[in-house]
Design a protein that fits this description.
CATH superfamily of the largest domain: HAD superfamily/HAD-like
Number of domains: 2
CATH class of the largest domain: Alpha Beta
Number of helices: 10
Largest sheet: 6 strands, parallel
Strand content: 5-15%
Shape: globular
CATH topology of the largest domain: Rossmann fold
Oligomer: single chain
CATH architecture of the largest domain: 3-Layer(aba) Sandwich
Helix content: 40-55%
Number of strands: 6
Strand order of the largest sheet: 3-2-1-4-5-6
Radius of gyration: 18 Å
Distance between the termini: 25 Å
Structural class: alpha/beta
Order of helices and strands: EHHHHHHEHEHEHEEH
Length: 241
């Protein structure tokens, strides 16, 4: 395999949910808090896992044309409604409570290495958040977590969801660079595979606890990536930042 030319990277595009922020801890804690306020006994972690299981299928239906475009908050709400129905909890969570649960995805804790690593990467590169999250969601999340991104490139701008090629190619077009000059950083094999198919460089970032302690996170060995790193500070080291 030819060694990846890190000197050609102009943009570092970062996945957010799981890669940059700990979605499971953040959602589980907020679900548990809302349920407790309502007097509902609920395992926040298990609920977060089941909710997340509906994430990719909901976006796939949009990409496949089975439903019209809808931004992620709408998809999250539809998945939430279905999950509550399936669990027999539809009557326990009113509209206001469901709105609070959907907004849980707007405030999630950053991984410990994220802020420092991103700040280092910005010394030499444009650092963009490239996420399936809606533009408002991403703006609020990044601000709340104090993450030093140069810009937000939501899938909403492409009206398609990763791993379809449009979000990756839209990011390159908006930043006026060739796809090969964009390095996609993600802890998900499906994201790495989608970015590579669109012509981007790829860096698999290991997050062993991304899916919590009871589930197995994606592994670098399950995809072909140009780089494999253990965190954003490690990536900064590799790119000489």
């Amino acid at each position: 395999m030819t060694e990846f030319d890190t000197a050609g990277v102009r943009v570092v595009a970062c996945d957010i949910f799981g890669t940059t922020v700990d979605w499971r801890t953040g959602v589980a804690d907020q679900v548990g808090a809302v349920a407790a306020e309502l007097g509902v006994r609920l395992d926040g972690g298990g609920f977060a896992d089941e909710w997340r299981d509906r994430y990719l299928p909901s976006m796939r239906r949009v990409n496949d044309g089975e439903r019209d475009w809808a931004y992620l908050d709408t998809l999250h709400r539809e998945s939430l409604d279905g999950l509550l129905d399936d669990r027999g909890l539809a009557d326990a969570f009113d509209g206001a409570a469901r709105d609070r649960l959907v907004r849980a995805w707007h405030r999630l804790p950053a991984w410990e290495d994220a802020a420092d690593g991103l700040a280092r990467l910005r010394r030499r590169h444009v650092v963009a958040a490239l996420s399936n999250g809606g533009f408002a969601l991403m703006t609020h999340l990044i601000k709340a977590a104090a993450l030093p991104f140069d810009c937000v490139l939501s899938a909403e701008l492409a009206r398609a969801y990763k791993p379809a090629p449009q979000p990756y190619l839209t990011a390159a077009r908006l930043l006026d660079v060739a796809p090969a000059q964009v390095l996609m950083v993600a802890c998900h094999t499906w994201d790495i595979d989608g970015a590579r198919a669109a012509g981007l460089g790829t860096a698999f970032l290991e997050r062993p606890l991304e899916k919590g302690p009871a589930r197995t996170a994606d592994r670098a060995s399950d995809t072909a990536s140009d780089l494999t790193v253990s965190g954003f500070t490690h990536l900064a080291d590799v790119l000489g930042c």
